[in-house]
Amino acid sequence: MANLKGKVAIVTGGASGIGLATVKAFLEKGLKAVIADYNKEAGLAVEKELKESYEDVLFVQVNVADEQQVENLVAKTVQHFGRLDIIYNNAGIGIQKPTHEMTAKEYKRVIEINQDGVFYGSKYAIREMLKTGGGSIINTSSILGTVGEPTSAPYAASKGAVNLLTKSIALEYADRNIRVNAVAPGFIESGLVNKQALGDFYDGLVAKHPIGRLGNPEEIAHAVVFLAENDFVTGTTIHVDGGYTAK
């Protein structure tokens, strides 16, 4: 198991939900963490809060769909902390809409963030990891990268792509000590996914999980930490889904 203390990690979508839970989990392990997020106000607020307890925290605003911004994110990380050991490509969006009503712009936006963003993050992280002898890339997939879901075609397509990007890049760089894995969450109780906001639809989501509840961000963060620590795991997608995809 790798000792994570002192390592440098980027977490995209790091200002809320699973991303924020992972930033906190990394900091508790002694890592230096970069909160990368499109939401500047939220990112700066999280940075300020975490700096009350942890010294090595940095917020960088980024749109992961923009290759230049992702390149700049990695460059700022290395400039500030001296290296990059881990990147968690977590930022993502979803649109639920019947396929025949979806615009090309809506479809492309999901692909640009969920799929292209993972490619850009991996590309520029690898360039730095090759200089320092290796590293760990972790991507957020989804249960919908394994099973289908009505009105979620672009999201499912993007997450299926993440699974195969993960495998392909892992094989490409395994002999250079760069491990690439993914975590596939079930439905996570976070943001607008809660009983109050969803009403009866919430109960339907719970019923799809054999374990009898939705997940929480900390459970996904724990899986991400495992993937960062375990030196013998690469090219895999771990489902943290309460049994959703086992059915």
In short:
This protein is α/β, with parallel strands linked by helices and 247 residues long.
Distinctive features:
46% helix; single chain; seven-stranded parallel sheet; 8 helices; globular; alpha/beta; 247 residues
| Strand order across the largest sheet | 3-2-1-4-5-6-7
Query: Uncertain regions: pLDDT < 50 for 5+ in a row?
Result: none
Order of helices and strands: EHEHEHEHEHEHHHE
Mean pLDDT: 96
Structural class: alpha/beta
How would you sum up this structure, described in words?
There is one protein chain. With 247 residues, this protein is of the alpha/beta class. Helices cover 46% and strands 15% of the residues. A seven-stranded parallel beta sheet has the order 3-2-1-4-5-6-7, with helices on both faces. It is globular, with a radius of gyration of 17 Å.
Write the layout of secondary structure elements.
Layout: E1 8-12, H1 17-28, E2 32-37, H2 40-50, E3 57-61, H3 67-81, E4 86-89, H4 104-132, E5 135-140, H5 153-173, E6 178-185, H6 195-198, H7 200-207, H8 217-229, E7 237-240
